[in-house]
Amino acid sequence: xxxxxxxxxxxxxxxxxxxxxxxxxxKAVITETLEGLGVTDAHxxxxxxxxxxxxxxxxxxxAAVRATGKDVWKD
Amino acid sequence: xRNSKVVTLEEAIRRSGLKDGMTISFHHHFRxxxxxxxxxxxxxxxMGFKDLKLAASSLSDVHKPLIEHIKNGVITGISTSGLRGxxxxxxxxxxxxxxxxxxxxxGRGSAIANGELRxxxxxxxxxxxxxxxxxxxxxxxxNAKSICGSLGYALPDARYAKHVVVITDDLVAxxxxxxxxxxxDVESVVVVDSVGDSSKIxxxxxxxxxxxxDILLAKQAAKVVINSGYFQDGFSIQTGTGGAxxxxxxxxxxxxxxxxxxxxxxxGGITAHMVKxxxxxxxxxxxxxxxxxxxxxxxxxxxxxxxxxSAVEYASGQHLGSATHALDIVILSALEVDTxxxxxxxxxxxxxxxxxxxxxxxxxxxxxxxxxxxPLLRGRIPCVVPxxxxxxxxxxxxxxxxxxxxxxVNPARPxxxxxxxxxxLPLVDIRDLAAKATSIIGTPDPLPFGDKVVGVVMNxxxxxxDKIFNIQ
Lengths: 75, 472
Description:
heterodimer, A: three-stranded mixed sheet, B: alpha/beta
């Protein structure tokens, strides 16, 4: 699950069952997805149980849309 | 003197001459429902024993109380086929000073028979025993409280341990025969309230899958069996644990019926699926070292063509008479398979022990055709990898790997590849499967292993195959 709150710069707290092997990659996907949406300041809490990157991108996008009210799929 | 063998647990321990530093043994036929290990080790701790070596045929989640006994110095060494749950987690993090010695079921049988694993006192749970110690895993009276079926893994202990204590929850009148554990090998009989919860025999690794991916894998594996050249009247088969490998039997059954093919025997952990085929007349004999569920346990109790075999007769690599040598086809699961066809069934991709060798090494090595069934990925965890985390079954014993992204055949078996290709099955190079996994999940960072050896994996011939390091 991805939770987004206000923050300065992009800060990602990750809790993952695959953190040792994939934590670095998961954080990078979250950061890249947010940057792609133009989000530069946010505090992200991510709880992961081994999801694939495509799923993580979709979850981050959905959370960002709900947090900002800006619908990236329509706009 | 009548009843001279029937004593309390404390008296049995005293009589056994057990001393600090000695080796005690147990079987795991009650799997997740076992009560004997915890009962006996608690008593040994209470009596002040230290530095004992525990030689179990396997250990599971239910043996978590051993953590405290290890911390208190009661248990200082373990040998087993597998470890699961909190005990496995603690040991993976370095709880035990001595490395755990992991052996396959056949390897343990051999090691006991040839004296490499010397057992001072065996504590063997049984669902029925008479006062002379003739004991079995099936009910023999109306008062029976438990059933576990075959006692195959306990039989080498009963035969070779210096001192044998049978622990039962139903003392029946002599003669409790036929019985796998023979009274002549038994020194004491202890009666307790319960040796195990039979409803938990099929807990743990064994599950009947409704997962559509498992069903797809099972169907593909069944096609491999059917087109392998070994699917002929009189063939023999074994399936391991894991949803997909168990489900294969269902699909093979359909083909057996339509072609009028019958199997001569099914081996190993016997399941309800195998019992069903046997009762339908599709499998001649069930050769049972371990009953994987209650249906199998009930079948061995009543059916003379469903027979109990010891771990040595089942799968010893050092005894040419063992049943695995007569086995045509085995279907097994895996945590990881690598591009050399090596298999890991013991250590998770997080570096934590979470499985058991079981009969994997033995059946893969001795059978004519070994088939590994596993998905390409479990979540983000790859199952086809460049190199396994821990080597359990060497690639030279593995013939075919079935995944939902295609079937890989060991290049050492070109004749099988040819047959499967002719049948139109989707063959792939195993290196392409590993590359496909990497393309989806990325390249994993290395695991944070320390430099302390927490486990040693033995090959079935008694040599060291691999070491497991602590995870940080």
